[in-house]
Structure formats: structure tokens, C-alpha cells
């Protein structure tokens, strides 16, 4: 686990390098956040109020340590998972406890995300996440991440519950959006910062609908896996990709220093 605890070539920044491995881990983190969030509120029977309190408290503690230390891959991705888990609870709480529905919940979350990005741009004149060096900008980054993951959850639930799509169909729709964003990145000159945040939002419903596919009952189109088992499998995959990518980054940095 040493590789997961040490920094890499992006040590100066507080955000992981944006590589294909980043997006794979983001999707796995969102899947884990969906299954873990549902495990807390549904499997354990704690409900959305208690689930939101638990996940938000854990998120606050994890992000505090993330902000107060230098970049650590394991801590960074723990914080990402915490935002996706809390995002699941926030979206469900707004829809089912407050009765806002997915449409108005999405409007509130979109407004929060746009306001956060506007404040970020006003303070820094830049919305790029590579690099993030200042603490105030990092705080805004994590607020934007929480809003985007909550919004992605609401959109994924909207596709399935109100759009009438199966979990796999919902995942395919969001995968199509991600594919379009990737094509725009590689084939056009569309602003990369804009594409990053679109991809960041839509990787959330992709992971969330896939997480629901793993755990929902068979008669609803899922595989009916226990949420705790699905969470553990997804966590193992996330840690494996994180370990490999971190080791590769360290080896690349070491070879550059010795050259």
C-alpha cells in the first residue's frame, strides 16, 4: 500500500492527473458511492435523514484531511468516494424526503454547481483543475465535486424512474454522452475545462445506474447482488486501478529524474 500513500508526478497539485485511469477510477468511485449509499440508508434501514448525516459527517472529516495535507492518491480518491456516497444520500433526500422530485432537485443542484463555479472563476479567473495549488480554490473544487456528483445521481435516477429506461439503458445513454465528450476533446477545439465538468457530471449517472443494475431486484432489471458485496467488489477494483496507476506514475517520474 506504500504506493497508494505516497505522492506522484502531480504532487504539486492537489488533484490527480487527468488521465484515462482517472476516469476509470471516477466511474468505479461513483458505482461504489451508489451501492454504499444505498447500503447505509436502505440495507441498514437507517433512512435518508440518518444516511445523509452519516455520509456528510464522514465527508467533512475526509475532505478536511485532504485539504490540510499534500496530495496523497489514496486520500484524494477516498474523498471522491465520500462525495459520491454523500451525493447519493443528498439526491435521494431531496427527492424522497423533501418531495422536490428529480426535476426540481436537479435545478437546485445545477444552480449550486454553477454558483460554485462562478465564485471559483471570480476568485481565480480560471476553472482548470490542473493544477490546484491554493486552499480556497481546493475548497471550491470539493464543493463543485459534491454538487456535480449529487446532480449526476439525480439525473441517473430520472432516466430510470421517470424516463422509463432500464438500468443498462440508462448506463448506455450516459456512456454515449461521455463518448461524445471524449470525441470533442480529441477531435475538436472545444474548451477542455467545459468538457471536463460535463464528463465529471455524467460519469456519475453512468456509475450510479450501473451500481443499481448490480444491486436492484431481478424483476426490476438488476442482478440482485447484496449491496455490501457489490461495494466490496467495486472497492477492490478501485484500489487495484489506483495502485497500478500510482506505481506507473512513480516509475515514470523516477525515469525522468535519472535521464
Unreliable segments (pLDDT under 50, ≥5 consecutive)? 6-11
Q: Give the overall silhouette.
A: globular
Average of the residue pLDDT scores: 88
The number of E-state strands comes to: 0
The CA-CA distance between the termini, in Å, is 27 Å
Which percent range fits the helix content? over 70%
Which class of secondary structure composition applies to the elements?
Answer: mainly alpha
| SSE arrangement, N to C | HHHHHHHHH
| Strand fraction | under 5%
Tally of individual domains:
1
Task: Please tally the helical runs, counting DSSP H or I stretches of 4 or more residues.
Answer: 9
Main sheet makeup: none
Overview features:
globular; 9 helices; 259 residues
Describe it for me?
- With 259 residues, the chain is an all-alpha fold.
- It has one domain.
- The chain is 79% helix and 0% strand.
- The protein contains nine helices and no strands.
- Helix 2 runs antiparallel to helix 3, helix 3 (47-68) packs antiparallel against helix 4 and helix 7 (167-187) packs antiparallel against helix 8 (192-215).
- The longest helix has 32 residues, at 227-258.
- The radius of gyration is 18 Å and the shape is globular.
- The chain starts with a helix and ends with a helix.
Summarize it:
This protein is mainly alpha-helical and 259 residues long. The protein has helices at residues 2-5, 20-43, 47-68, 73-97, 101-124, 135-162, 167-187, 192-215, 227-258.
Explain the layout of strands and helices.
Layout: H1 2-5, H2 20-43, H3 47-68, H4 73-97, H5 101-124, H6 135-162, H7 167-187, H8 192-215, H9 227-258
Helix pairs in contact: 2-3, 2-4, 2-8, 2-9, 3-4, 4-5, 4-6, 5-6, 6-8, 7-8
Amino acid at each position: 500500500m506504500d504506493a497508494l500513500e505516497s505522492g506522484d508526478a502531480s504532487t504539486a497539485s492537489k488533484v490527480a492527473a487527468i488521465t484515462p485511469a482517472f476516469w476509470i477510477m471516477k466511474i468505479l468511485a461513483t458505482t461504489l458511492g451508489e451501492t454504499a449509499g444505498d447500503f447505509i440508508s436502505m440495507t441498514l434501514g437507517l433512512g435518508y435523514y440518518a444516511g445523509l448525516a452519516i455520509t456528510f459527517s464522514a465527508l467533512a472529516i475526509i475532505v478536511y484531511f485532504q485539504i490540510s495535507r499534500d496530495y496523497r492518491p489514496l486520500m484524494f480518491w477516498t474523498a471522491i468516494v465520500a462525495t459520491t456516497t454523500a451525493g447519493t444520500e443528498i439526491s435521494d433526500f431531496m427527492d424522497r424526503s423533501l418531495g422536490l422530485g428529480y426535476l426540481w432537485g436537479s435545478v437546485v443542484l445545477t444552480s449550486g454547481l454553477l454558483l460554485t463555479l462562478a465564485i471559483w472563476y471570480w476568485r481565480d479567473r480560471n476553472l482548470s483543475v490542473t493544477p490546484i495549488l491554493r486552499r480556497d480554490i481546493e475548497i471550491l473544487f470539493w464543493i463543485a465535486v459534491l454538487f456535480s456528483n449529487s446532480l449526476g445521481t439525480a439525473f441517473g435516477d430520472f432516466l430510470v424512474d421517470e424516463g422509463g429506461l432500464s438500468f443498462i439503458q440508462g448506463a448506455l445513454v450516459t456512456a454515449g454522452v461521455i463518448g461524445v465528450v471524449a470525441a470533442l476533446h480529441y477531435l475538436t477545439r472545444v474548451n477542455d475545462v467545459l468538457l471536463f465538468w460535463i464528463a465529471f457530471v455524467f460519469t456519475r449517472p453512468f456509475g450510479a445506474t450501473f451500481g443499481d443494475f448490480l444491486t436492484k431486484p431481478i424483476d426490476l432489471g438488476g442482478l440482485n447482488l447484496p449491496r455490501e458485496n457489490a461495494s466490496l467488489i467495486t472497492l477492490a477494483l478501485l484500489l487495484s486501478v489506483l495502485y497500478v496507476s500510482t506505481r506507473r506514475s512513480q516509475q515514470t517520474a523516477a525515469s525522468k529524474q535519472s535521464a
